[in-house]
Amino acid sequence: MAIGGVGAGGGAGGAEAQGRSVLVTGGAGFIGTHTVLQLLEKGYAVTVVDNFHNSVPEALDRVRHIVGPALSARLQFIFGDLTIKDDLEKVFAAKRYDAVIHFAGLKAVAESVAHPEMYNRNNIVGTVNLYDVMKKHGCNKLVFSSSATVYGQPEKVPCFEDSPLKALNPYGRTKLYLEEMLRDYQHANPEWRTILLRYFNPIGAHESGDIGEDPKGVPNNLLPYIQQVAVGRRPELNVYGHDYRTRDGTAVRDYIHVVDLADGHIAALEKLFATPDIGCVAYNLGTGRGTTVLEMVSAFEKAYGKKIPVKMCPRRPGDSEQVYASTAKAEEELGWRAKYGIEEMCRDQWNWAKKNPYGYCGNAENKD
Ligand SMILES: NC(=O)c1ccc[n+]([C@@H]2O[C@H](COP(=O)([O-])OP(=O)(O)OC[C@H]3O[C@@H](n4cnc5c(N)ncnc54)[C@H](O)[C@@H]3O)[C@@H](O)[C@H]2O)c1
Ligand SMILES: O=c1ccn([C@@H]2O[C@H](COP(=O)(O)OP(=O)(O)O[C@H]3O[C@H](CO)[C@H](O)[C@H](O)[C@H]3O)[C@@H](O)[C@H]2O)c(=O)[nH]1
């Protein structure tokens, strides 16, 4: 484990907006970088712990560049792996944290089917370690990255927080189990304050186009795939399923701008600080609007200015027909709602793609 990077040591000097310090696990990843940026802009002191399993140091350097030197001085990076308890002990020995936002986890469904043990070890053991070390050091406020995957193949949409839950694959099972585990832990320790955020489909990028999603290998998700077709890395998009009972036969999802998602984390954090008896609560973070695959392709084409070649293919095993959120609970209780529509999501996704056709590494090396 090493401690380093610009601003190592925190150096938060003086009156951060809330004078508060937040640990962000997995803060070098897609959603993490956007959230870290907004936390810094809000005046929080931020420590990131990440093992770069699915990210690169450059991503945090870009965050520092966007926020500038003054706010960067409040960003500390610690290289560490949550599955190694000693790494976490060192993170907590270095500083006192008022709260933790826990993004670190593996998230690829197909990989989880091939390597379920890897998903259990990383996602479950990592979270158990985090909880233990937080408890030992008296830090009891936690925002956890859950997923709409916990709704399985919903029989009814929109998905409400109290809709039936079901895991369809090992990745989903880790999220469902961790939600239940964190609920049990909170019940046994009523002073804990825990928010479970169920993200729908995060896409887009920061308006600067300097940070965004940079998947390793062949993208599983729709927008990263479309983006790679647009920059010439893939010949065409396979559209999985065109016989669903939807407007155009393709599947419906609730795409949410990653900047809105990051805002949702700030709202959740503020809710934790303001609500001593919150317990353990789940919130959907989505827009409440469903978009088909083909509608998403045409929204992207509008931003891109050219056609995306598509090939109609059979359904992808395990996919749901329609998934979108009820956003009422987050609106009422967190005072948060998504601001951006799919046009802005595609505009910002394309801006990131054209500035970074090969992601953070800048060239085709090590990319397939
Ligand atoms: N992106 C999505 O579509 C989506 C949807 C729902 C839920 N989520 C959840 O949100 C969280 C963040 O997702 P993301 O899209 O930013 O993923 P990401 O892979 O870009 O970021 C995750 C980060 O965690 C780090 N990490 C993983 N395991 C670690 C470990 N053991 N120790 C330290 N660092 C570790 C990775 O290196 C990476 O930087 C994940 O928990 C994911 O399951 C993501
Ligand atoms: O190349 C592709 C990729 C995707 N799709 C389709 O696009 C839709 C969205 O697919 P994504 O893979 O982008 O998103 P999913 O909703 O299937 O799943 C993602 O979002 C979920 C949350 O709702 C979970 O977090 C899950 O783990 C995560 O991969 C699906 O109908 C899918 O079949 C294609 O047609 N072609």
What characteristics describe this protein?
single chain; 368 residues; alpha/beta; Rossmann fold; 8-stranded mixed beta sheet; two-stranded parallel sheet; 11 helices; 14 strands; globular; binds nicotinamide-adenine-dinucleotide; binds galactose-uridine-5'-diphosphate; galactose metabolism; carbohydrate metabolism
Short description:
The chain is of the alpha/beta class and 368 residues long.
Provide structural commentary.
It comes from Triticum aestivum (Wheat). GO terms for molecular function: UDP-glucose 4-epimerase activity. It catalyses: UDP-alpha-D-glucose = UDP-alpha-D-galactose. The structure is a single chain. The radius of gyration is 20 Å and the shape is globular. It has helices spanning 30-42, 57-72, 85-94, 109-114, 116-136, 170-188, 222-230, 258-274, 293-304, 328-334, 342-355; strands at residues 2-4, 21-25, 45-50, 75-79, 99-102, 141-147, 193-199, 201-203, 237-240, 252-253, 255-257, 280-285, 291-292, 310-313. Helix 3 packs parallel to helix 5 and helix 5 runs parallel beside helix 6. The longest helix has 21 residues, at 116-136. Residues 1-17 have low confidence and may be disordered. It is α/β, with parallel strands linked by helices and 368 residues long. 39% of the residues lie in helices and 17% in strands. Bound molecules: nicotinamide-adenine-dinucleotide and galactose-uridine-5'-diphosphate. Galactose-uridine-5'-diphosphate binds at residues 107, 109, 147-149, 171, 200-201, 220-222, 225, 237-241, 251, 253, 293, 316, 319, 323.
